[in-house]
Amino acid sequence: MIPLNVIYESNPITYHIENYVDFILFYVLNKGLLMLKKVMFLIYVFFPIICLGAGGGHAGDYHLDGSLSNMGIIWVVPFAGILLSIAVFPLVLPEFWHHNFGKISLFWASILIIPFVIKEGAAVTLYEILHVGLLEYFPFIILLLALFTISGGVRLTGSLVGTPSVNLAIILIGTFLASWMGTTGAAMLLIRPLINANKHRKDNVHVIVFFIFLVANIGGSLTPLGDPPLFLGFLKGVDFFWTTSAMFLPMLTMIIALSIIFYFLDSYYLKKEGITIAPTTEKIKLGVEGVFNLALIIGVIIAVLISGFWKPHISFEVYSGVHLELQNLTRDILLLILTYVSWVYTSQQIRKDNEYTWFPIIEVAKLFAGIFITIIPAIAILKAGTDGALSGIINSVSNEDGPVNIMYFWYTGVLSSFLDNAPTYLVFFNTAGGDPISLMGEFKNTLLAISAGAVFMGANTYIGNAPNFMVKSISESSGIEMPSFFGYFFKWAIPFLVPLFVIVSWMFF
Question: Please, are residues 187 and 470 in contact by the beta-carbon 8 Å criterion?
Fold first, then answer.
């Protein structure tokens, strides 16, 4: 096959035609997105007025019916579209994606909203958007913003060099912290020190990938503080330390196996690069700058706990059936205050040394706005259980002999890889009976399968768990060329995680 550059050099006309076609494509896409933006602006301005003018009604009337008779699998297309955009555009049109990912996210959200209004009506559509926006999306972004801003004010100083031993130590520290300060908190705290320690390394993508595996996902297995699905289980009545004892051995199995693989893989890449880590003549003592931000991270944990333990039974109805509870409002306000304190009182030099920019949080906020909206039908279909388009999955997790735990593990995990793992956990928790006493007793292996699937397999994709995409974005802002959505899944998750999941399912379920 003749290289393209040879063809272009030998045939300038072909080269100019190709450039012209690219220009036309780029121009059409830009103009199309600009027109869409203007149209959607008008829709979003007048949409609430139209919906509110639709009249009252009971909250129950506004809940989306995800049964097969009302909602086919075709409604998942916009969600699949935004996932494919995240996977394909950065590879095919990276510059276009970099400047227009927010518009593309808006496009897919609009592709769902417009027919959704026509089919379900304005009232149901507004209810679903307000519900997912006010109760899920904004709390999610506020928590990420707080942890991103506060952790960006912490800088590890000293001669920390990214050898296999040092990298593994940082990852294991983060893995331990994840169960007690959350996977997002641990990931945001340690990703920058890990990146800085490996700036001298050419091959460092694998370091970030294994950090996502362990710190951003598997490390959050031991307490309800670690991962949102486990926190939901705790709110449903699962004992706080049940996960500590039940999840310990599966988690330990995963950690030991991935740690061994990582150490030898990192050693291989270091040897391949031919880097010799020479001891420095000037010893710099390790230290921490912006240490007061560590106290603010504890404040974040306390704020999250408040929303779980404090039940004042006070709420404010924003729209029929959409209630903002006082404890959640208090949590979000506290998180924003902590964010402000960190931003104002942290030396800007620390953030400069950390190469801190707002781009990662902006990227996550824009993309996940589209994801949270387009995921609405998928979650409704899943919640419909045996009446929904995914009834085959729901029916396959049990038979005449009782629950099939290995199926609970795999289906909870696979769906958690692409959908929000919290509602996925809740669906299978309720499918297994929903009684925390029996699920911690007679059916403890079923609850273990659901919990492990939701937590472990969040590592399969960038959208499987909240911190995954943030870690990717921060790493790319620091100059690390992270794999694409499919690249991460096929090159890293399937070869390294899936075989271990098979072993874990064979050992424990």
Answer: yes
